[in-house]
## 1
Amino acid sequence: MSVNYTTVQWNRQKRRYDRIMGGIIALYLLTFTLLQLAFYPLISPETLIIRATGTLAFIMLQFILCIGPMARLDHRFLPLLYNRRHLGVTTFLIGAVHGIFNIIQFHSLGYVDPIFSVFASNTHYGSLQDFPFQVLGFFALLILFLMAATSHDFWLKNLSPRWWKSLHMLVYLAYGLLVFHVMLGAIQLEQSPMWIGFVGFGLFTLISLHLMAAGVEKKRLQEQMDKAAVGEGFYQVCSAEDIPENRAKMVYLEGQNIAVFRYDGKVSAVNNICRHQHGPIGEGKIVDGCITCPWHGYQYLPQNGQSPPPFTEKLETYDVKIVDGMVWVNPTPYPEGTERPAAIIQA
Amino acid sequence: MYWLQILLYGVYAYLSLGLIFGLWFVFKGAEQIDENMHGATWPTRLLLLPASIALWVVLLKKYLKHQRHGS
């Protein structure tokens, strides 16, 4: 949040997240090494590192891309979103080990520049069978580097959230490049169709999850619009009882993405987009009296949308009223940080 | 592949300039465009270095704009 920058914004939950992530990575590397040694006893340490880090980075990227839709389909996956940034940076670092070892082993022993060699050692760019798949991995790694290098909050603020978000959406391009990197590499180097099946299954899972999440979201919005009754600028969004304590109902009205929170026998509405990385505020919960974004823990007071001092982030607020137990929201936003009276839920 | 060699030299030149700019930026320039950088530690500044090298043209543009407008 807007105080002086620190190197890494750790807290108890993020440390726990990172410890679990480190444990799973160590377990994967150990298992992979033992299996490789069992099936290929003569494998060199360099090849083992290249294979272990390459497969791990690809699996991690696949997993990262699945977290978003999984969390939308089932809120029990929300904790995975919380520290996805560290997962992404770790994925890049593991991918970088894979790339660096590849360049050292296959491109640095000749008399030409190693990077030049990546592009020029195999020039069958017109052939599917012999395509220089390493080039695809190089560009994917470049995208992952840019994302990891700009993951600090300094970049989010100074590149502007829109620019930053666009840059980080390139992750899908990186994933596509890596799919072809693995497919074309596997076609050339592996006899077994296992790797192609493995990548195909991952791709299918990822696309299915995104389509399912989009379908559920579309249905939710449609149901909301069908149900919404309108009166004096207010839309009826749900019964107060439908909102669990310290949680929110998310509504999309007249182009406004709104999170309606219930807490301490009251209801307040704020804009649903976190000022940090545009995370969905409404998927978070109220902790210590503050709305807490599920992505990185940014906090806002429900009645005025302001981050508690000394932080300065602010959200737009909206008028809310409760009539006969039903929550009504006026989607006309008040300027960021404007205090609006909460609607009291009658016992 | 002559063109590729030339292109690669261009990238190396860009990154070399980026390294010079980046070192200056993370230790001096960054606090002039972002007040939250005041008091940032060495590790935090070094963490910003890789992207400062890669995106130095964007940062230079932002820095110059900031100097012109003074905000």
Note: Residues 2-69 of chain B form one domain.
## 2
Amino acid sequence: MTIDVKSIDPGTLKEIYRQMSRIHEVDKAIQAGLSSGKFMFTYWPMTGQEGIPASIAPLITSEDHMVTIYRGIHDQVAKGVPLKGLFAEALGREGGVNKGKGGSPHISDPSSGSMLTTAIVGAGAPIANGLALAEKLRGTDKVTIVNFGDGATSIGAVHEAMNMAGVWELPVIFLCQNNLIGEYTAIPDYTKGENFTSRAEALGFRGVRLNGNDPVAFHNGMKEIIASVREGKGPVFVEAMTNRLGPHAGVGWSHLLKGDDLKAAKTDWPVPATRQALLDAGICTEEELADIDNSAKAEVAEAVEWAMNSPVTGEDEMLLDVYGDPDVVPRRGQRIKREAEPEWTGETKTMAMFEAVQDALDLSMQADENVYCLGEDIGDDPGGVFKCFKGMQSKWGERIRPTPIAEQAIIGCATGSALVGMKPVAEIMFADFVGVCMDQITNHAAKQRYMSGATTTVPMTVRMICGGGIGGFGAQHSQSTEAMLLHQPGLKIVYPSTPTEAKGLLMSCIADEDPCIQFESMMLTYALKEEVPVGDYRIPLGVAKVKREGTDITLVTYGWQVMQCLLAAEELAKEGINAEVLDLRTLLPLDYDRILSSVEKTGRALVVHAAVEFCGLGSEIASTINEELFTKLKGPAARFGAAYAPIAYSKTIETAQVPNVNSIVARVREMFK
Amino acid sequence: MSTSLTIPKLQMSSTEGTLAEWLVEDGATVEEGQPIYSLETDKSVQEIEAPAAGKLVQKQPAGETYPVGTEIGEIV
């Protein structure tokens, strides 16, 4: 490799080398610490790839966004993440940029523009789209660069993200640091493709291959690309050819590059090569280069010492940053009293749930210009498959964003934009589809506040429709999937049973500081109409509501099962059993106080839900009631959910497998035997 | 200031490592970055480089397997 020093400003090349030297000293310090046993953490060395972020650094500022992966220490250093906080984070210390709660694979440092680091290969790409979309909607010229390895090109998230970026012409650069090895498996063992740039071309945008080891060629190539993205000319995919001189994890040299391969790779190593080029061209003297290296070494030594002196993050931080408000974390016996919404005395209008949802979306968009909506088919026509968006795109333009059929891209985009203060509302249509974007919801949106030590938050809302109870939707469009999401700390979940509550809860979710999920029942979307408050109307999260007062048993329920329970209560009344029906409305934060207060009064409880009974929310609530109120109960609290089978297409089976009026009545009768 | 040498945890799954061979004699002077011993784990054999310059003091014999964190030497 010959570095053409004449094609770059000498000062810039010197600056690029200074960044390389800093990265190299950080790498050396980590490897020395691990080798000597002073540090105990997993490290994914990026030795050999230093030239890529070092050459980009002079072209961007802390205002530009970066997303990277666990093999990304070089990206963090060059982006300007403070070294003291970086080392302290890798060591799990209080002084870490993320309070030691994320660690080196989850760095977030918004002050330098390092917005999110993922340990899930390829998952950063959809999130980068969100950052880029936020800047595009705001009309800034900031660029977003998402780094990933060549291994990530195999995963669906990258493809989904590239397709969305292409069609939306987002100001994002997909920077594939191609070291030819994905973890332990090298090309051509994992792909038959000869290059990755053609994948971008296939999706309608530019793919450029550059030599990531040559700081001059790479800097100059990136200069033109970054300028083009800044000008709004759409995304670019960059395949930066490089070498990974180290192993997948650990220290030392790669054992996948054998003999001459390792030797050849070392001659392309940009750190010594750039140093030599500066010397040969007479740009720097040996003394000047030694000064650069010594100053980097001193900066790193000071950072390591500072980090080692920072206390290990303690247990008192355990339940902080799961949510903005630590009281949202569910704890047995916790009886937080949250005030209910005042009774509405203002104007009302007759609405079905889909109309109430649209009203909430429309009002939220009026109130806050950061609110925007995205989802499949939400543009006009058809205005959403559930008609919640009818006419919205015509009214709001680019703030209503019909997407490709790509749930990972949708949720990643929402997450990324929320990191910079947008308030996205995503629709992923049927609740069963959550499986497609589970990684984005659970590993990213839900965990980001915690992993980043609250330096970033994800104030997004996701709506999903449960098709159960109607029949004919089959196993993949009928399930009530709340239990899957309740098991992921970091999410708030609401499940309204009326149009009014759908509106009030949704408006609260959109304004909330944490990621919220609203489940809407297909059973109720069109069938149930009522008088809904007009204008801004919010129901606080975490407040259950008694829908029917009773004295003999509490039916704790939510969603479309509320109606089933109310009907069951009327049947039971004929037999002399006076049931109270408590509609949870919010599943998390859970209103333990109103649940326990009601059961203290009635002495019996049955939790009813449309989701599968086994390991469902009903088990959790029944167990808490039994533990907290054991001596006051007339019988054990129980739960009643769907039979343990996928939802059947046969209407007869579906009716039988999900709780309904008759089966709820029968279950309650058993409890009184 | 001396630098302690302990069996490193190089992989998420490592619990122990075999000190296969000392590459530098006891008491010899080493340069920072010079390979000083080879470590065998279930995944690989790796030459471990000196984290600092100084005189190597060997504290454990080669050919044995030690739990992660065991002090095997020192650079003084």
Note: The radius of gyration of chain B is 11 Å.
